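Researcher: Next entry in the queue.
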Amino acid sequence: MSKILSAVAWPYANGPRHIGHVAGFGVPSDVFSRYMRMVGHEVLMVSGTDEHGTPILVAADNEGVTPQELADRNNRIIVEDLVNLGLSYDLFTRTTTVNHEQVVQELFEGCRDNGYMVVQETPVAIDPKTGNTLPDRYIEGTCPICGAAGARGDQCDNCGNQLDPQDLVDPISKVSGLPPEFKSTEHYFLDLPALADALGAWLDTVEKDGKWRPNVISFSKHLLEDVRPRAMSRDISWGIPVPGWEDKPNKRLYVWFDAVVGYLSASVEWARRRAAAGVGTADDWREWWNNPEALSYYFMGKDNIVFHSQIWPAELLSYNGAGSRAGEPGRFGKLELPTQVVASEFLTMEGEKFSSSKGIVIYVRDVLSRYQPDALRYFISIAGPETSDSDFTWSEFVRRNNSELVAGWGNLVNRTCAMIAKNFGEIPPVGERAEIDVELLDQVQAGFAKVGDLIANHHQRAALTEIMRLVGEANAYVSRTEPFKLKAPTERERLGTILNTLIQAVSDLNTMMCVFLPHSANAIDATLGGSGDIAPMPRMEEVTDLDSGHPYPIITGDYTQVRAWESRPVIPGTPIAKPKPVFTKLEPTVVDEELARLEAAAGE
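Model: Structure for this entry, 604 residues:
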């Protein structure tokens, strides 16, 4: 079995996260990680809140609080939401820890000492109203390459090209709406041209492997057509100090250099916390990072592809000394590059792009306060933006919840357990199975291999669709065998065999379903007479910084006791009580109520 690193994009802590965010990084990474644990791999799933950069400064200034206070508050909100959604992180931490700062500075120094960080003068954008440095993404204008409006200062989403703010036609600050002022200052640049050949060779290798999503590999290869040095420091007071520039307190490392190192720093913190608790050693993270046999999967939305298929691999290559300037790895040793960048497309809402400022948004917290978490997880998994943009509408959310979760899967569980409770009170013994019985069980059990292969290769929509097809087959089996008509004493053995067959199919389907719907899978397992912990759940834990003592919450959990990804025979004689519905049917009025909320938010 392999070591699997699930590296999950770091949600930015300038506010609560909306459902578009978790559709890109959250649910897909959790489904994959849960499955990999069930087939026996050692998974390390890490992430945290990204808390540096100008947007935090802007938001904090608007609220009249310090950046740390804003980060503390939003970190807690995000942690609570992700725990409630059931995302099974081994460690979800934050970028304002001393541990993170130390790991980031080590990476920077390694890249610099190997010659891949070069100092250059560059124009810097200043907001004329606030006097603050503007991050590239806070500057918009017309793309100088394709002419599209709304291009950002770092990238044009229309043509995919990397940009510099000063290249935009008619740029404006998103903070004040005024044209930015540019002044020339000194900064460190990552020498991407010196790493281009190594990056190209790596992308050629992963392209031949054929596992990357086509949209991700084509976009990543396209980036190599215009490689230039990329600034890795900023004029800002909120961020990680630049090693060697201690006399320049307003020079900080670029938040995107800082954030992607988080995958490594979170792994280091995970090992340190376990060692402090007497489990393993502080170097256990190396089994995922210095091990050529380990596999690493990075989950995000498509707007972050450039940072994960070019900038982060370039940082790793430069730290390893693997570019044209050569060099030697630093004290972390040779760090392995991503096995796969798993990027989802965009989720829109009611036909429009998510926009908190325009009120076109629904936050994770609001959905979870009104609806079951597995209803949201189901929608994201069955209709989310896996390989193409998709649209969240309240009418479709209600339809899928009612016709698929409630009337399909929930109905199968309820009718199975209700018939067993009424007729036997326990799982009945099985007699000789008829061909129709064997046919259903063979189909369901074959689903483990088919569904598992789809999940392993990041085709989660197809995997869940296959499970729901098998749910349909089980419901059809009930209609064909009509166990509710078998009432004569001479038919009791046949009734028991049908219901034993049916509950075996339901149990197997629940095992497959638990990676997608962990909350309801646990409830269904209890309904089937199990312990109700088929899907281990994450927990929020209050901790203090390992080095500074600053308090903050983390997400962690014990996922060692997982059910194997295989059929497990049901045990005759297991008590089965009259079931309660697992899923909540939604009234049609929900659609109008939610659309009214959206309209009210847009009008504020």
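Model: The radius of gyration is 26 Å.
Researcher: Noted, moving on.
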